[in-house]
Design goal:
single chain, 261 residues, mainly alpha, 11 helices, 79% helix
C-alpha cells in the first residue's frame, strides 16, 4: 500500500510539472485565434505565421548563431582545461577547478549582475561580444565536468603506448585521446548549445539594444499580449531543448560504443 501511494504521488507530481507544457504544445495546433478550450480544430497556421514573422525569425537566427559560437568556444576551452587539469600537474589545480566550476554554484542572476557591473566599471558597454562572453562563462563548467569525467576513465597507458611508438604529443592527442573523448565532447557541445539557446536571465542583462534571442522575444511578446504564435514558438523551443540533449546522448552512446568505452 505504501509503495502504491508513492507511485501515485510521483505520477501526480510529474503531471503537475509536464501538463502545462503539454497544454502549450496542444494549443499551438489550435485553429482558433484564442488559445482556449474546447479547441475548434487542428491547424498549423500559427507555425506558418511564426515562419513569416520577421522579428521572431531574426531572434531565432541570433539564438542559433549565439548558441553555435558558445558551443564551439566552450567545448574548445573545456577540452583544453580538462586536459591540463587531469593529465598534468598544474600548481593550484584544485583551486583552478573550483573557480572554473563556480558559475554553476552561483545563481545566474547574481552572475549576470556581477559581470555587468564589472564591465560597466571598466567602461565597456553592452555588445554581442559581452553576450557571448557571458554565455561562455555560464556553459563552460558543464563542458568541463562532462569532459573531465570521460578523461579520467581513459587510461594513461594508451597514450603512453602511442608516444613510445614514436608518435608526437600532437599526433597522440588527435589519433588517440580525441577519438576516445568524442562522446564527451559531443555531449558537452550540445549541452552548451542547449543552455545558451534556452537562457533568458543572463541574456536580459547582457544583450545590447535591438538584439533579441528567442527567449527574450517570447518575454517581450508576453508583456504586450498573448498571441497564439507564442504557443507555436514555445513548442519549437521545447522540441529543440528536449530533442538536442536526447540526440547528444544517442550520439555519445554510439561514439562510446565505437571507441570501446
Amino acid at each position: 500500500m505504501g509503495w502504491r501511494l508513492i507511485r501515485i504521488y510521483t505520477i501526480l507530481v510529474y503531471l503537475f510539472m509536464f501538463l502545462p507544457i503539454a497544454v502549450v504544445v496542444l494549443l499551438s495546433f489550435n485553429a482558433n485565434q484564442f488559445g482556449s478550450f474546447p479547441m475548434t480544430g487542428l491547424s498549423t497556421r500559427w507555425f506558418e505565421a511564426l515562419w513569416n514573422n520577421d522579428a521572431i525569425m531574426r531572434a531565432f537566427r541570433t539564438s542559433l548563431v549565439l548558441g553555435a559560437m558558445t558551443a564551439v568556444i566552450s567545448t574548445v576551452l573545456g577540452v583544453l582545461a580538462s586536459l591540463a587539469l587531469v593529465r598534468y600537474r598544474v600548481p593550484g589545480r584544485n583551486m583552478i577547478t573550483t573557480l572554473l566550476i563556480a558559475p554553476i554554484l552561483v545563481p545566474e542572476v547574481v552572475l549576470a549582475v556581477a559581470l555587468l557591473l564589472f564591465l560597466n566599471f571598466l567602461d565597456i558597454g553592452k555588445s554581442f561580444t559581452l553576450l557571448l562572453l557571458g554565455h561562455v562563462i555560464f556553459t563552460l563548467p558543464f563542458v568541463i565536468l562532462v569532459v573531465q569525467a570521460r578523461l579520467v576513465s581513459i587510461k594513461r597507458d594508451v597514450e603512453e603506448a602511442a608516444l613510445s611508438l614514436g608518435a608526437s604529443p600532437r599526433q597522440t592527442f588527435l589519433s588517440i585521446t580525441l577519438p576516445l573523448l568524442m562522446p564527451a565532447v559531443a555531449a558537452g557541445g550540445l549541452f552548451a548549445f542547449t543552455i545558451s539557446f534556452d537562457d533568458i536571465t543572463g541574456t536580459l542583462f547582457w544583450k545590447p539594444g535591438g538584439v533579441e534571442t528567442v527567449p527574450t522575444q517570447i518575454f517581450s511578446m508576453l508583456r504586450n499580449s498573448i498571441s497564439p504564435e507564442i504557443n507555436a514558438l514555445g513548442t519549437v523551443m521545447i522540441v529543440l531543448t528536449v530533442g538536442l540533449p536526447l540526440v547528444g546522448a544517442a550520439i555519445a552512446r554510439k561514439l562510446a560504443t565505437r571507441s570501446g568505452g
